[in-house]
Amino acid sequence: MQVVEIERQGEVALVSLNYPPVNAMSNALRQGLVAALAELDADDSVKAIALYGKGRGFCAGADITEFGRAPEDPLPPAVTLAIEDTKTPVVAVIHGNALGGGLEMGLAAHARVATPDARLGVPEVNIGLIPGAGGCTRLPRIIGWDAAIEMITTGRPKTAAEAEAIGLVDRVVEGDVAEVALAAAQDLAAGKLDARMTSAMPIEPNEALLAEWKAKLTKKNPHLVAPQKALEAIGNTLLPRDEALAKEQVLFFECMKDPQSAALIHAFDAERAVWKIPEASATPRDVKTVGVIGGGTMGSGIATAMLLSGYAVTLVEMSDEAAERATATITKNLGGAVKRGKLTEEALTAILADAFAATTGFESFAETDVSIEAVFENMDLKKKIFAELDTIAKPGAILASNTSGLDLNEIAAATSRPADVVGLHFFSPAHVMRLLEVVVHATTAPEVTATGFAMAKTLRKIPVRAGVCDGFIGNRILFHYLDAVDKLVLRGAAPEAVDRAMEGFGFALGPLAVNDLAGLDIGIATRTKPGKSPASGLEKRMVDAGWLGRKNGTGYYVYGDGRPVPNPDLAPHLDAERAAHGITPTEVSDQEIVDSILTAMIVEAVGVLEEGIALRPVDIDAVYLFGYGFPRFHGGPMHYADTVGAAALVERIEAYAEADPDYWTVPALLRQMAADGTTFAI
Ligand code: 3H9
Questions:
Q1: DSSP β-bridge partners for residue 437
Q2: Cβ–Cβ contacts within 10 Å for residue 221, how many?
Q3: Ligand 1 atom closest to Cα of residue 76
Q4: pLDDT value, residue 516
Q5: Rounded to the nearest whole angstrom, what is the distance from the C-alpha of residue 14 to the centroid of ligand 1?
Q6: Which backbone phi and psi does 121 adopt, to 5 degrees?
Q7: Tell me, what's the pLDDT at 440?
Q8: What span, in angstroms and rounded, lies between the C-alpha atoms of 625 and 623?
Q9: Beta strands 421-426 and 435-439, pairing class
Q10: 114: closest CA among 52, 54, 166?
Q11: pLDDT band, very low/low/confident/very high, at 332 (cuts 50, 70, 90)
């Protein structure tokens, strides 16, 4: 089977791309396509050419696996030039995905036809790049400035219907893609489909609109390089074609050299790497019905997520009132999905009528495939619930806990079937957040773990396999670096300075604003180890003063109608806490704040690796990217650690340890890596 095939049908020719799984523009595909076009263009008997993709879609763009290697000619821009400059008109016939360089081939064609399942997009900004095969230059001429800037700077793809509405495709035709391609080529040859050269299509200057977008992007994504470079390339559309394309190339390679692109590609890979687990070959159990125990924020969120993905859910609460409250929360959550266009009003009514029930007894769990316990973090209560479930659940049912850090071995031991017990740790709001920690204890059966992953696929979540320890992967690292945050505040950093520094690094919200959001009382309860003094003395003082964070309007900040403002009454509590530790506050720079918090994060993450709690560094990155708001353009804590380097980190930790030896220790693995010159990248 050739990567690019030619099929002649009378006076037209079909050129098909065949490079599974996604027809990425590999060397072989680029060479084959340019050769095929040259061959057909030299043949006067060919009146029109249709270009289409075999398999799942048209083309997913440049071959990401070739990035970082010496590029081989012809490069993607030369391929799109070859399409545009072919004398014989070319129609791109798009089914499935036409992304990045894939869509750019379509933009260079002389006409575009899509099947209804097509998804057309230029997602390069998501991996820190810009469309570099003529996309920035050509797209505005086809769909206008505004639509082109929106598509390129957000990276969001269009459906076939949307593409037709904005003129991105000439028509949408149902049918088998090869047949649609043949008909389109025949129409093109017969003049029933207009052929035009994209780079010659007229476009009026609109400096004001470009300036407006520049301001908007700077405000929305102050850290991101690629959207700004894309805008610059789009602005060059008005230049003569070859000049505009040459400038687009320069901007593309500037993006490629920027560390943001490597980080964003790592994040893209992380989403896929997490699925590779030792249990991948086990057959998941069949799951249609899910029981949820507890209807608080977590339980209701989990039930909502399940219902939105087609599972039937029974929720158990302590009382009729609590069951009603949970039903109201779930109805509200589902209503939000209707508002966002993810669910129809009729589907919502049908789900609530046929797929959901809230009760007060476990009896209904006798036939449930998976039960998920989501009550508050109390070991005795959880053990009691699991013991009861054990007596009711059918053989083969999976008993899952949403615990965010308790010992799952102990919970499993409360049942007569520990192999059926697994942790499914959702993140709040559970119907929105993408991360799911699948926590595997000492004797969890492989097919039970595989079922957790299969459910994650149905739920469209990103599962990360975690072993058992206090806090698993995510919370264990969080609790450790929150201690570093507390120490910085005690040393002299104002809480808002800590948040500003971390927001400057790229977090949407600083750690203390997050603590306010989660509830200061909850934070203390979860971070404090049994029998130990409160994790944060300052927060203990704040809770004693009646400040619980955002939920009652006062915490590190005061929350009113406008932007939260730093709590003006915090100073005496801060003074008292510093005095209790004998600390005279000194100035702490933003850089010190960022370095200290990220280093603390990395130190604990290395511990998680050393103990085998996470399978690989990339799993830790996935947890932080998809569950803890780590800035995607830094790639996750382990990827970020590689950009600093093990040797520099060791040096930094040793310096910190001089002042605070109890907290800072160089992990053995990191020291070894510094000696070997190795990285976390696999
Ligand atoms: C670009 O085009 C730059 C241009 O402007 C030119 C500049 C000069 N290359 O995601 P899946 C692999 S930049 C190589 O599991 P799905 C993927 O890793 C590119 N490989 O399936 C996976 O491999 P594995 C712009 C690729 O159905 C397998 O294919 N394009 C590429 O859930 C299946 O993928 C993008 O950013 C690629 N381009 O989703 C599109 N794409 O089986 C990136 C995928 O070994 N791709 N693979 O794990 C996607 O968004 C999704 O993969 C897609 C399919 C929606 C296509």
A1: 425, 464
A2: 17
A3: 8
A4: 96
A5: 24
A6: -160, 165
A7: 98
A8: 6
A9: antiparallel
A10: 52
A11: very high
Tens of pLDDT along 423-436? Answer: 999 999 999 999 99
Counting residues of the chain whose pLDDT is more than 70, the rounded percentage is 100
Dist. CA 23–CA 16, nearest whole Å: 10
Going by C-alpha positions, the residue among 428, 391, 426, 389 that lies closest to residue 411 is 389
Across the strands, what pairs with 439?
423, 466
Q: Identify whether the C-beta of residue 417 lies closer than 8 Å to the C-beta of residue 433.
A: no
> What span, in angstroms and rounded, lies between the C-alpha atoms of 99 and 76?
13
Cα 441 to Cα 437: distance, rounded to the nearest angstrom? 12
Measured distance CA(666)–CA(376) in Å, rounded: 35
DSSP secondary structure string, 472-538?
A: TTHHHHHHHHHHHHHHHHHHT--HHHHHHHHHHHT-SS-HHHHHHHH-HHHHHHHHSPTTS--S-HH
Place of tokens 């006067």: 44
- Secondary element (H or E) of residue 462: strand 462-466
What is the Cβ-side half-sphere exposure of residue 361, based on CA atoms within 13 angstroms?
4
Please state, in angstroms and as integers, the Cα–Cα distance from residue 122 to each residue in 61, 342, 532, 554, following that order.
9, 23, 53, 44
Tell me the average pLDDT of the chain. 96
Per-residue model confidence as pLDDT tens digits over 550-559 = 999 999 999 9
A 10 A CB-CB count for 81 gives: 20
Q: Per residue in 107-134, pLDDT tens? A: 999 999 999 999 999 999 999 999 999 9
Provide the 8-state DSSP code for 25: B
78: left (phi over 0), alpha (psi -120 to 50) or beta: alpha
Which residues does 599 contact at the CB level (< 8 Å), separation at least 6?
484, 649, 652, 653, 656
The pLDDT tens digits for 140-153 are: 999 999 999 999 99
With beta carbons less than 8 A apart as the criterion, state whether 664 and 628 touch. Answer: no
How far does residue 60's CA lie from ligand 1's centre (Å)? Answer: 5
**Catalytic sites, residue numbers:** 425
- With CA atoms as reference, report the closest residue to 95 among 212, 184, 226: 184
> Which of 75, 99, 117 maximizes ligand 1 atoms within 8 Å of its Cβ, making it the mutation to test the pocket?
99
Whether 488 and 598 have beta carbons less than 8 Å apart is answered as no
Residue 559 is given by DSSP the state -
Give the global pTM: 0.93
Q: For ligand 1, pick from 19, 22, 63, 79 the residue to mutate: most ligand atoms within 8 Å of CB.
A: 22
> Would you say how long the chain is, in residues?
682
Measured from the Cα of 272, ligand 1's closest atom is 48
Q: How deeply is 641 buried, as exposed, middle or buried, from its count of CB atoms within 10 A (0-12, 13-18, 19+)?
A: buried
Going from the Cα of 240 to the center of ligand 1, the distance in angstroms, rounded, reads 32
CA of 268 to the centre of ligand 1 (A): 9
Residue 666 identity (one-letter amino acid): V
